[in-house]
Amino acid sequence: MGGYVSTDAYIEPNVYLSPNSIVCGEAVVADSAMLLDEAIVEGSATVFGNAIISGKAIVSDLTFVGDNSVVEGNSVVLNRSYVLGNVKVSEDAMILDETNLFGDSKISGSATIAKSAMIAGNASVADNAIVSDETIVIEDAIISGSAFVSAAVVSQKSQITENATLWGLGQVWGGIIRGESVILDHGRVSGNAIVEGNALINGTSGAFDNAIVKDNARILDASLVSGEGRIEGSAIVRGYSDVGDKAQVLENAILHDFAFIMSSTKVYGNAELFGNTTLLDSAQVFGHARVDGYGSMWGTTKAYDHALVSNSVLMHDSQIYGNAKLLNGATMMDSSYAKDNAQITGNVRLRGTTGVIADALVCGDQEITDQLISGSGYCY
């Protein structure tokens, strides 16, 4: 047994100390532990079991490193931290502030684990990543790059990398978070979801399954994106909105309130959905069109330009565009269309190839089939 040992330190007989290692203060090195190279154990630290401290690593304060754990390189373990199991701490990693490392976890690069964080299972934290504030990282999760994770739970095969940020009780169980993306508050990501670019998820909102949230997209409040849903560009999904299946919200589109879009629907351009709107099948809303109230669209319907659908229904292959309005319980079906400044309101039902154009006003309780309606300011 070599190395320097202070008078207050305790060393058991089976311990190995290299000639340049140091044990000082009231440190304890027990069982079959090994200190190699220029390793230092100091303060009230305890190293036990088959643990190995090597390189220029430092274990200090009231810290415990045990079992088959390895602390090597220039890494530092301080401040009442626990490193137990088959943990490996290497390179320039820093373990601070009552942190707990268990299982087969690995901390490397210049990573910092602090403020009662726990890393366990096969999880790894690398590069310049920071994990703090009681964060839990378990199973096969990977945190790398310059990622910052605080007060969150990360599990399964999650990957948080590049300059991504996760904080405020966020939960990630699966999925990839990368780029400059940010997950705040109780934001959630799971499955094979991808969050990248400058995307933001906050509130109790979440991205699940195979969803993609990218560019400058925002998922806010309690909204959800699931299935193969895509939120891209500068799109915003907020309130209690739900985007699922293969639905897409792109460019500058906005979903508010309780908007619900599924199947292969698409909302893009500067389009907006408010209220309790529903889009199904292959419906599309784009341009500056707006759907609000209890408006619903399904089939291959389209609303575009500056069209408005409010508390009304488009189905089958119908279309509304220009400055046309569909209001107050009106229904368009089959291949009907409305354009220009047309307005359809009340319990009207347009069927077949009916077209409402120019400044026509259609109202009342009536069903119209295969007609072309034009005119100015009268109720047909």
What is the topology?
Elements (H helix, E strand, L loop, with lengths): L3 E2 L4 E2 L4 E2 L4 E2 L4 E2 L4 E2 L4 E2 L4 E2 L4 E2 L4 E2 L4 E2 L4 E2 L4 E2 L4 E2 L4 E2 L4 E2 L4 E2 L4 E2 L4 E2 L4 E2 L4 E2 L4 E3 L3 E2 L4 E2 L4 E3 L2 E3 L3 E2 L4 E3 L3 E7 L4 E2 L4 E8 L4 E2 L4 E2 L4 E2 L4 E2 L4 E2 L4 E2 L4 E2 L4 E2 L4 E2 L4 E2 L4 E2 L4 E2 L4 E2 L4 E2 L4 E2 L4 E3 L3 E2 L4 E2 L4 E3 L2 E2 L4 E2 L4 E3 L3 E2 L4 E2 L4 E3 L2 E4 L3 E2 L2 E4 L3 E4 L2 E2 L2 E4 L1
Parallel strand pairs: 1-4, 2-5, 3-6, 4-7, 5-8, 6-9, 7-10, 8-11, 9-12, 10-13, 11-14, 12-15, 13-16, 14-17, 15-18, 16-19, 17-20, 18-21, 19-22, 20-23, 21-24, 22-25, 23-26, 24-27, 25-28, 26-29, 27-29, 28-30, 29-31, 30-32, 31-33, 31-34, 32-35, 33-36, 34-37, 35-38, 36-39, 37-40, 38-41, 39-42, ...
